[in-house]
């Protein structure tokens, strides 16, 4: 369809954000089966957990699936494993480093500035994601997508994926008019049946409006000094929580871990406790989340913007 789909092999120029803990094999495979590019999210997970994800993906789809690595958290052996099993690997939240870029896969980097985009291309990346400050989760840059996207598009000669606040077909069309080769969507996919997010987290997204999405550094325990966008209600609930421990979670293949008040981890299906007081990441596109849908339904709705 265009140079992004030609590069990665997806049917549509639509990429699902690789949200660690939420974007597991089931979600990534569902997005890819629907024609988008599904992404597994990798942060601190151990090698055995990621190996299980990769086995699950292989059983669920024959379409391309990639992996998003939080650069300063992911272990080198995990990157090596992923690069041996998936065709696309990308990094986020660290200055682009040629030593990070695997030679045997298509590599991308999510960036928040023109200089970072240029550094990613110089490091060997074959596409970049321009992330506007409207994005949910951790936010790399400080400018709106409408300002960042055309500047990055003019500065590099690789496919540019637009990210941040894209949750409707109209937003897809707007990104294309600004020069995007593809769009990247996170919040809409959190609120899908295949998402691994906690049901109460998903319910909070369904009930929220765009104005409920707040850029903050409040949930900084475990990932300090890193701006992120969450629901305002989560900040209020965490502030009112009577204890510094608001719950517990069990990482796949791991031991139970406490969920700390203002901790950076978002709640998934294995989490218990006061879900409302945890990091409920959400971009400004949360206003477009009005019900729980399948990943395929979200892909179909958004891809109307490509017609």
How would you describe this protein?
This protein has 307 residues and is α/β, with parallel strands linked by helices. The chain folds into two domains: 207 residues, Aldolase class I (TIM Barrel, Alpha-Beta Barrel); 88 residues, no CATH class. It is 32% helix and 19% strand. It is built from eleven helices and 14 strands. The strands form three sheets. The protein has an eight-stranded parallel sheet with strand order 1-9-8-6-5-4-3-2. A three-stranded antiparallel sheet has the order 7-11-10. The chain has a three-stranded antiparallel sheet with strand order 13-12-14, with no helix packed on it. Helix 5 links the parallel strand 5 and strand 6. Helix 2 packs parallel to helix 3 and helix 3 packs parallel to helix 4. The longest helix is centred in the N-terminal third of the chain and has 14 residues. The termini are close together. The relative contact order is 0.15.
């Amino acid at each position: 369809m265009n140079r992004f789909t030609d590069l990665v092999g997806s049917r549509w120029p639509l990429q699902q954000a690789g949200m660690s803990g939420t974007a597991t094999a089931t979600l990534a495979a569902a997005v890819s089966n629907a024609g988008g590019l599904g992404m597994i999210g990798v942060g601190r997970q151990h090698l055995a957990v990621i190996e299980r994800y990769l086995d699950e993906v292989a059983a669920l789809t024959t379409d391309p699936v990639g992996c998003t690595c939080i650069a300063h958290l992911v272990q080198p052996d995990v990157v090596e494993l992923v690069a041996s099993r998936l065709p696309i690997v990308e990094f986020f939240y660290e200055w682009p480093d040629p030593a990070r870029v695997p030679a045997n896969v298509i590599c991308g980097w999510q960036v928040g500035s023109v200089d970072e985009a240029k550094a990613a291309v110089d490091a060997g990346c074959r596409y970049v994601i321009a992330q506007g400050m409207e994005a949910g989760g951790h936010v790399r840059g400080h400018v709106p997508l409408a300002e960042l996207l055309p500047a990055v598009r003019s500065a590099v000669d690789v496919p540019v994926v637009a990210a941040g606040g894209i949750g409707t077909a109209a937003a897809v069309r707007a990104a294309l008019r600004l020069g995007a080769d593809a769009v990247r969507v996170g919040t809409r996919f959190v609120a899908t049946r295949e998402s691994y997010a906690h049901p109460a987290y998903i319910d909070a997204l369904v009930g929220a409006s765009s104005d409920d999405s707040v850029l903050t550094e409040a949930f900084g325990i475990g990932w300090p000094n890193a701006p992120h966008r969450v629901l305002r209600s989560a900040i209020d609930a965490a502030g009112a929580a009577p204890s510094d421990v608001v719950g517990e979670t069990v990482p796949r293949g791991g031991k139970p871990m406490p969920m700390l008040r203002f901790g950076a981890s978002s709640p998934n299906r294995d989490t218990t406790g006061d879900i409302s007081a945890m990091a409920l990441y959400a971009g400004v596109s949360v206003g477009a989340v009005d019900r729980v849908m399948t990943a395929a339904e979200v892909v179909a709705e958004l891809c109307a913007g490509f017609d």
